Amino acid sequence: MSESDQNLERNLMTGSEMRRALARMAHEIIERNHGAQNLLIAGIPTRGEHLSIRLANLIERFESVRPQTAVLDPSAFRDDAHHRHMNGSNGAEPLNGMGDTDVAGMRVVVVDDVFHTGRTARAALDALMQSGRPAYVQLAVLINRGHRELPIYPDFVGRNVPTSRTERVHVRLVEVDGEDRVAITRNVPSPRIGGVGK
Q: How much is the mean pLDDT over the chain?
């Protein structure tokens, strides 16, 4: 990251704030689902996967019952042509970590780090339905940044952060990035040389 980029970055959540938000979300998931029985926490790679494990650990600590966990890869179900071309279905199962267990009748919480347009969540729903018909599906995200383009909204939110379309939200996790922190950066166009840009 360049010095100019660093000057445009500001923190949204510290590690301790993230941990408190996840603990609150875990309690909300328990309350909404009346415990942890028959509950599946499915994380979207990459950071949603790690957040799902943290939520499962917290739920187990609070309830003494560990919900099932799985990795839910929606890349082959996206409506973005570039992502479909890059990822393809390649025959891989979209839901991993369940063994032979069917999700039919289960209560499923899909976990992602940032909710933006809702297109990743829609693809995740399509991917999940390939493994059976759950009793119902809920969505948990650490950050809801707005700008949704589909009638999909998260059920559990760590923090709502209004953003502009020129801003980017960066969720950093110890498991991936070596630290727990959420930051936001603003893209500033480079100044044109020799004239005024339109």
A: 87
End-to-end CA distance of the chain: 28
Q: Is the peptide bond before 69 cis (omega within 30 degrees of 0)?
A: no
Q: Give the C-alpha separation, 189 to 195, whole Å.
A: 14
Quote the pLDDT of residue 105: 93
Amino acid at the residue 176:
V
In whole angstroms, give the CA distance from residue 43 to residue 112.
6
Residue 129: φ, ψ to 5°: -65, -15
Can you give the pLDDT at residue 191? Answer: 53
Question: What is the CA 81 to chain-centroid distance, rounded?
Answer: 21
Q: Partners of 170 in the beta sheet?
A: 183
pLDDT tens column, 144-157: 999 999 999 999 99
CA–CA–CA angle 35, 67, 58 (5° rounding):
80
User: What one-letter code names the amino acid at 63?
Assistant: E
Residue 101 has pLDDT above 90, yes or no: no
The H or E element spanning position 59 is helix 47-63
With beta carbons less than 8 A apart as the criterion, state whether 73 and 94 touch: yes
Identify the CA nearest to 185 among candidates 47, 14, 15, 11.
Answer: 11
Render pLDDT for 32-63 as a digit per residue (tens, 0 to 9): 999 999 999 999 999 999 999 999 999 999 99
DSSP code at position 148: -
CB 140 within 8 A of CB 125: no
